[in-house]
Design brief:
The protein is mostly helical. It is 23% helix and 0% strand.
Length: 315
Amino acid sequence: MRKITFLILFCFLIININAKSPHGNKFNIDCTVCHVTKDWKIIKSGFDHNKTNFPLTGQHKMTECKKCHQSLLFSNTKTKCNECHTDVHQGTVGKECERCHTTNSWIVTNTRALHEEAGFPLRGAHKTADCNRCHTSASDLRFENIRTDCFACHKDKYFATAGKTYDHKVLGFDTDCARCHNMVGMDWNTIGKGFDHSFFTLTGGHNIDCVSCHKEGDYRKRLSTDCTSCHSGKKSEATTVIPAHSSIFAKYSCAECHTTQTWNTVKFKQHDAFYGIYSGKHKGTWTRCTDCHKNDAGYDAKNTCSRCHNDIQHL
């Protein structure tokens, strides 16, 4: 009897060892993890899919197993989005669906980030622009490659300046709108600082709106770069006060004393050559020009310490 029992167990063991799993030879998960002994067709719901190469997230958590596992050979199951889902964009945005979509919903929520990634950030008026104005494909779901330069969409604005004082074509303005216009603005009147103004650097107080200098709006008219052409009032206002711009300092240019930061930032460049006086308390904000030069007559006269420091008593 014992021999018969042993023989039956041995045969059962041999059969199980040689049995092939319907899920493939490399499938080494125990059957009882998914099945019950009562009926193989009853599938348990406790299988941890996150331990596989395809974790179930979003809508995939509620998807019936058979919708993906259409064959018992699980190694043949497709894992790429476009292998299961129809490409409604018809190949115009590539095959990487996860760049725009998530498993939670097909609705795209990162439109601005996608445009940033594509090299065309949605700023200024482009934030509120209708998508269809740029994406003019026959289908709303097709996103053909389109040009991203301003002129491609706004050439009518460029040519609309014909005959005006700022005629873009006559003035030789190129079609790179961003050189002059600010792309974060809401209209074309928002002028940027992109124009090559190197022939007259726009630094300090000169970093202002174009119309502040081009008052007539005629950009074809070449303006003088001499300080007095815009700031003549500064000298006339100073004729009755110290220092006397119209007399003693009339022979010097504004730039020899002033900078573009502010009219109050003054340093006479030739002062060091005359007396080397910019040191100690004479340097910087400690001393103003008028602290020593109290009248016009004293500007060209030789200055000695006692002229200003006559209260010093020598022992």
